[in-house]
Amino acid sequence: MSVLDRVFGCQLSTSRLDAHGYAFHGATRAHIVSWVAEHGSVPEGKVLDHICRRRHCRATIHLEPVTQSENEKRKRLAYRARIKLCPRGHSLNGQNRAVTPEGGVTCRICNRAAGAD
To answer: Residue 15 and residue 108: Cα distance in Å, rounded?
Structure first.
């Protein structure tokens, strides 16, 4: 179960959270369950990065398979601030850039396509 955050497009899970803020669906993290249901398994050597920085978000538009090294870089606000395109190629300049309370950057075009914003 999840709740749509209409401002940022996050599908915020209402299930139990672990000490790090990740939501679970059974024994598996909820965002992984959502990704697998929509896209199949996470590519080998990749982890799912929450571009919104909200660990209990399960919106697949906010997940991107990246290397662990890239995921670590993206934890830094200065690094995220330099990102100019969303994973689907939309510009993140001006009004299209939505910054979540956690400092993540989401794309308003993608959020609208997913029924938010």
So the answer is: 26
Q: How far apart, in whole angstroms, are the C-alpha atoms of residue 114 and residue 35?
A: 15
- What is the per-residue DSSP string for 48-66? EEETT--TTB--GGGEEEE
pTM above 0.70, yes or no: yes
> pLDDT by residue (tens digit) across 26-82?
999 999 999 999 999 999 999 999 999 999 999 999 999 999 999 999 999 899 889
DSSP H helices in 1-117: 30-39, 68-74, 77-81, 108-113
Give how far Cα 48 sits from Cα of 9, 31, 69, 95, Å: 17, 8, 12, 26
